Structures are given as C-alpha cells and as structure tokens.
Amino acid sequence: MTKGPENTLARQNSRGADPARRLLSAEKPGEDGFFAAIGFLLPALLVYGAFTLFPIFRTVWLSFTDSGGYNTAASFVGLDNYTALATDPIAWRALWQTVIWLVLHVVLAGGFGLVLALMIGRLRNAQVLFRAGFFLPHLVSLGVVGIIWANIYDPYFGLLNTSLDKLGLGFLQQGWLSDPTLVLFSVNLASSWQGFGLYMLLFLAGLQNIDNSLYDAADVDGATEWQKLWYVTLPGLRDVMTFVMSLALINGLKGFATVFVMTNGGPFYASELITTYIYRLAFQAQQHGKAAVLCIVLSAIAVAITVAFNRWRASGDA
Amino acid sequence: MTYFKSNASAFVAVLVAGTMLASPTIAQTLKMWGPENIANPETAELWNEIKAGFEANNPGVTVEFMPPTGTISNGAVQAAIQSDAGPDVVWTNSGIGRMTVVVDAGLVQPLTEEYKSGWSEKIFPWLDAQLKGNFNGEIYEVPDGLDALGIWYHKDMFAKNGWTFPDTYQGFLDLMQKIEESGMQPLVAAPNNTGSAGHLFGLVLQVTAGSKVMGEVVSGNLPWTDKRVVAGFTAFRNLVERGFIKPEMASLNFDAGTRLFLSERAAMFVGGPWFIALARGADYPLGNLGYTTMPSDLPGESIPTGGIGWSYMIPTSSSQPELAREWIDYLLSDEVMKLRAEHPTSSAIYPRELTDVTPATPVMLDIFKAASDGVGYNPSVYVPGSTIDTYYQVIQGLISGQVTPEDGAAQIEATMHKAQ
Amino acid sequence: MRFIRKELPIIAALTPILALVLAPFAWLIVSSFKSPREISIADPFDFPEQLMWQNYVEAWQVGGFGDLIGNSLINLVGVIALTLIVCAPGGYALAKMRFRYREWVFYLFILGLTIPIQAIVIPLYQVLQSLRLIDSLAGIILAQVSNGIPFGLFLMRSFFRSVPEELLEAARIDGASHFQILTKVMLPISQPAILALVVISALSTWNDFFLPLVVLISADVQTLPLGLVRFAGTFTSNYRLVFAGTVISFLPIVILYLITQRSFTEGLTQGALKG
What we know:
Chain B is of the alpha/beta class. In chain B, about 50% of the residues lie in helices and about 10% in strands.
C-alpha cells in the first residue's frame, strides 16, 4: 500500500509528541504569566463564554423555573418541571425513540461505512472514484436531505413507491412515513444516507495506517482472506472503530433536521426525538422550564457516551 | 406586570414615533409581515400598487413587505416580533387560539380605541361582536380574510361519472363508495402540517355534532369527550376504515395533499377560498373547480367551517405604531378592498359586505353564497395554542390507527383542560 | 495485471451499490426538468420530453436563491475566518505557554465539546436576543463559532503540541515574543491543521440546520438549506420548482467538492482523527 499525503500529519504527530511532552514537563510552571496567556485566549473565552458556557449554566437554572413565553418573569418552582416531565408519556416515548434512533444510525451509517471502506480499501486505481462517489450524499445539508427524502417517500409520487410499482414489486409499497412502526427507520435511513460517507472516509484512513508487514506475515502463515480480515484488519481498526462509534452516537443524538422536515415528529409522535420535542416545547408551546429539563437529559446522555468511549479507548491502550 | 411593561414600552414607542412624525424630512420605513404569497409576481404586482397608493398619500414613507417564514403556530411570528428588525404590522393566520398566544405574551397592542372611533363600522356587525367578546372587551386584531372551509371537487370528473352531491351524510358515504369503486381516491387528508390537518377533520366533526356543539367545545364549555363529539371522531375514523381516507395519508403535508387533488388522482379536497390561489399557481383550470358544503343529517348544518382566518396586528415592538394604524386604516378603505376583491389573485372573504364587486374567479360567488348563512367553527383556529399540537397529532393518530376515537378525544380534552 | 483481475469483482459489486446510493440525485435532476404534467404522472423511468430550463429560471426568481447562496457564503466565510482567528492563538496558549490554571481553562473548553447545541438553545436564543443578534448573519456566525471553539482549540492545541520544542527555543533565543513565534514559526508550518479546521468548520456549518432555523427568521438573511425548506413548505405545491430548487442547493457544493476532493478528504480525515 502506498502512503498518501494524508499520512504526513500523522507521522509528524507520532514523531513529535513524545519529546515535546518531555521537554514541556521539564520546564518550571508559571513561566509565561497568567495574563500573557489569557491575552491569547481572550477572543475564544469571550465568544465561548457568552454563547456556550453561560447558556449551559443558565439551562440548569431554567429547569427550576416556570419560564415561558417571551415577556413573563420566571419564578422558582423547584422540581415541578422534573416531575411534570417524568409523568409525560411523550417525553418517555421521545427518549426511547432516541435510543432506537442512535442504534439505527450506528448500524446503518457506521456499518455501511465500514463495509464500503473494507471493499474500497482493496482498490487501487478506482479507489478515488468510489471514495468520492460514495461521499457525495454527505455534502447535502441535512435540511435538504429532509426535502429530498420526503419526496422519495411520498406514497403516491415518490421515487420509492413508483419504482416498486414499475418494477412489478407493487406489493412492497409502503406508507414509509405514515406507518408508525416504519417511520423511525425510514427517516433514519435518510439521515444515514447522508451520514455514512464521513465514517467511510475515517475507516479508509484507518485502513491505511495498518502496518503492511502484518499482512505479509499473515500471507507467510497461509492465512485466508477471512482470517486476515478477522485477525489483522479489524483489530487494526479498533481505534478508528471506537472513535467512529462515539462520533456516530453523538451525531445521532443531535439528529433533528430530517425528522423536523419530514415528519415533524409524527404521525402521533411515532418519530418524536428528544431534540424535536425540545424544539416543540421551547419554541412552539413556550414551556422553557420543561424544555430545559429535557436539555439536561440530552446533555447527560452525550456526556455519558463520551466518557464511556474515552474509558474504553483508554482501556485498549493500556 | 406584563401588561404594565408592554403598555409602557408601547407608550415610549408612541412618543418616539410622535417625534419622528413631527419632522417630515425623516424617511420612514413601515415593515409589514406578509402578504403570504408575495413571491408570486401577480401578488407582488397587486400589493405594489396598494403600497404605491399609501406612499403617495404619505410622502417620505416606504412600505416594505417581509415574506412570512411561518405563523404564530410555529413561533415564527413571535420570534420576528422579538427581533430587532421586527415588523410594524403583522398580517398572519389568526383565530382566537393563535391570538391568545400573542396577547398573553404581551406581543401585540390593543386597538380598542380605533374600533371605537370608526373601525367597528368597517366590519360585519357579528364579527365586531365576536371580537369584543374575546379579551374582556379589548380588541387586538383587525380581521382581514375570513375562512370558509368546504369541499373542492373536479367538475368534469363528477359530470363524466354522473356523481352528484346528496343531501344526507349517508348519501355522502354512498357517493364516496362509488368513487372508491371507480378506482379514484375519494378524499384527501393532509395532516402533517399545522393548519391543514384540521380542515377535513373539523368539517366531519361539525356535520356530525353540529356547529352549536362545536362552538361550545372549542370555547371550553363542553368537553371533547361529549358523546356527540366522540361520534364525530368515530365518523372520521370510519372514513379511514372504509378506505375513503388511506392510512398512508397520515404523512402527507399540505403540499403533498394538494398535489394529489390537483393532479386529479383524488376526487375531493377540503379547503377554503384560498385554495383558488394554489390551483392557479399549479396551472389548474379554475373553471373546472367546484365548491360545495359537506352534507349533514342535522338541519342547517351543511355549512362551511371557518372563522377569522387572517388578521392584522400591531406588535408592541413596532417602532411607528401611529403609521401602522394609518396603514391598516388605508387597507380597510373601499378603494383597497375593491382593488383586492376584483384582482385575479383574490381568494378571500372580506370582513364586510362588498357591493358592486365582480370577482375575477366565478367560483368565489359560490363561496360567498355558502358562507352567507354563516360559518361554523374550524377548531384549529379556536382551540388554545397549546392544545393545537395535540389536536393535530391526534388526527394523525386516528388516520394511522394509533389512537381510538375515545382516546383521542380524551387526550385533546386533557391538554385543553390544562391550558385553562 | 494481477491486481486488476483481483479488483474487478469488487468493482462489479460496488458499482450497483453506488448507483443505488446516487439514485436520488439522478431522480431529482431528471425530475427538475419535467413539466407539471410529467411530474404528476410520476414515472421515475420516464424522461422529460423537453428540458424545462424554465423550472430553474422560475425557481431561482421565486426562491430568491441568489440571496440565499450569498448568505450561505457569508455564513461559511465568517465562521471559518473567525474560528481560525480565535482558535489559533488559543490553541497556542494551551499548548506552548505555561501559566497557572492552564488545566482548568482547558477543561472549561472541553465542557462544551460534548454538549449538543440543542441542549443550550433556550438561553442561547435569549443571549442573542439581548445582544440584538437574532435574525442576523452576525448572530448565527457567532453562535456557530462558539459551538465550534472547543473542537477548534483542541485540534490546534494537539497540533502545536506536536511541534518540537527546539524550534521554539531557537526563536526565543533570538528574542521573539509569543506573538511572533505564533505568526512566524508556528502558523507557516500549520497548513495541515489549518486545512483540517477549515474543512471541518465548513462542513459542520453547511450541515447545521437547527441554529439557522432558530436564529434566522427573515427570508433575506436565511441560508441556502433553510431557504429551500421554507421554499418547499410555503404552500406552493409547485413541485417542479421544488425539484429545481433542491438541485440548485446541492449542485454547487458537489462541484466544489469534486474539484477540491483530494485536499478536502485529507483535511477532513486528519482533522477528525487527530482532533
């Protein structure tokens, strides 16, 4: 396998990191002064403080108030919003459907990305062509993906049902977005169509970093292609795989645009996610306090996923 | 507290506007949220003419139209009012449910004084009475378009097949059975939008339960779980079970539903006078559009549902409320009303009787006639804002078979109860 | 020749999959040239009798796509430029400067790395509103930059950390200040990191739908994806225009990608894996 230009940075990193760290730790702390350093960090601190940090803490406060509407002054209501949400069947449904949504996204987008990378990684001349071709859906903005797939799924005029009809497979026609047991899968498929390209690229980069001599050694041992896949390729992709999985989970958690555009959570909440329910509560029903509780739940899941995967990665390194 | 604040800011705004009016050299821009279809060249032409008339009367004033990005139902109007670049006049979908949202949030100014000094005479007396009953005598809106939801159908298709509209609801079911057997889709439901979901549903409720009962229900005096109302829910679910509405319609949004009808793959569609504008936009031959009311077994109940569809409002954040009032006053003039009513894009019922007006689309006369006996209640515009969402979801659930009629009614009643 | 024979079965397997994955594009492009009647017949394998370029002309005018593209460009350039300006010095300070509370400052930024934007949107909206930034491109740019800062800082920091200390030491002996070291020594060798940051902020900005939906209210400040959703949903039921508008909203970026494919892929993968 040839080393592409993609690897220059990786090599620089692996060469530079250790000596640099040793040098830094040898220095005395406090050398540059707090204020000199803060000067470099000030622009970042200002923007981040106002538009991210403050809202994080403010969300926690909001969850204990009855803030709603635009002009009303919020007052402290204790745990009322928490109990209201705990007894709200739509909230539980949204939470459960978000979990299914995450799993679907990891399997459909992550899994498809991996399979494609394994196939494309074996190509030489045609690799760029397929890599670029399969990446194209990822360039479509998610809101636009919603428009495209709403049209694909239209029961009467959509690409899917009309194609099935023309191919004599009319019995397979479905109400892709109206069948409550199917809608979450359908919308997720649209999302995953947009998402898998990124994961495929990451897996391809991971494949290039696997030491070629391992394959040569396997050849010498007379390993079959499947054995090489199982004992060399997949273990070699372990780091990328944990990374892609956490990325796919976080991306899945943020899923909003396709649901919002295609079904707006319907029919009868069958595709409601935490994010769409937050939007509904915050911007349509104007129940900020209750929405804030759901925001905290969302953050907690995101943090839990990140921490869990960092632990997992760290345990692999040890 | 809220009221004090909004009144105080309105007062300051009036002061500011007053000083601005005192010096005529200052150029003023009056921003209006709307009209809805301003991107359409013909609509733009009409409104530019209206605008030019106002600007000629008020030197130094420029009127600017903001293409609406949504309604009160999805929060777009509230957000726009709150923004720095907010409109001076809002022209949007109204109805008591939506109005309650913006009035309670202190986002729109009371216009009661203006009604006392003349606007009351410029609208139907029954409309004036209805407005006065809403917010303890205070009025916050100027109704512009009244809605009258009925059944649209293809005249040639009905003539060719010998289909006619009967006088009884049972006859209506038989008609749909015939249409279904001919291979044509009888009815369109498009419940995936706020707005269009309730059109067909509200009409079925009305012809089953009667407009008086529905009026009591939407104002909260009768529960949604009343037997007569649940019978309406059951009648709607029955349409699905008999195949007159298909379960896959649960995902159709308004545009997709409209396409199904306008491409003549469905026989009937429920909509108001505004539907003419859509048919025009899709190059549908307007002469072929028929309009009728849904048959009912209750005497005198074969009437459209509707109510106030569109209104003008003045946001509390308006930087020139006086000028905004003058603009609305101008829009209420005979000159502007006649101009709009006779324009080819006209597709509204105006808030007062217009004499000597020849609408460009003849079917408008059928709508005026259907609405002349009064219109019933379209729940979408009457139920409180927080209930609307549940209302739409329940309609979807009835079509997709996720809720029973009794359950659906109970869920709407529960959110309605909470809202009050 | 041997490897070609080995590759052939893979190519044969991949080609139909690729065709299936790209079918939506083909269908949209073909549909966008159809007449209203052809669209209502809805035969996906039927080609338009004559190409309705008119659809594009009308969609462009009615949808105001010129303005939308302009807004998206301002949005993208603004986010990329500001992210670089903010994250390069910040990342340098976190990587190469020694100061008290460095770890704390770093953790403060890491806090934002995992919190989804939807989880802080209510107060974010209030902040933007009190700064009068709702319904403005400046507002959306600042919010998106802030959302990208944790990742940007992290990326720049890990790149700068990998630069050998000897390089800096030489500059220090020459009496260079931190600012000079950053601009004269570090930035010139940072193209891989900068490329990664550019590509990743561009892609996440382009894919963002939630923030524009909440922040950009008027049509004249909306970005391309949001504008298309509004265009497709304002009760026009004019599908030939919706199809043409959809093609307009993805074709430019697809062409741009195909031109810059190599460096784009490099920036994206390295940025994502190293960040």
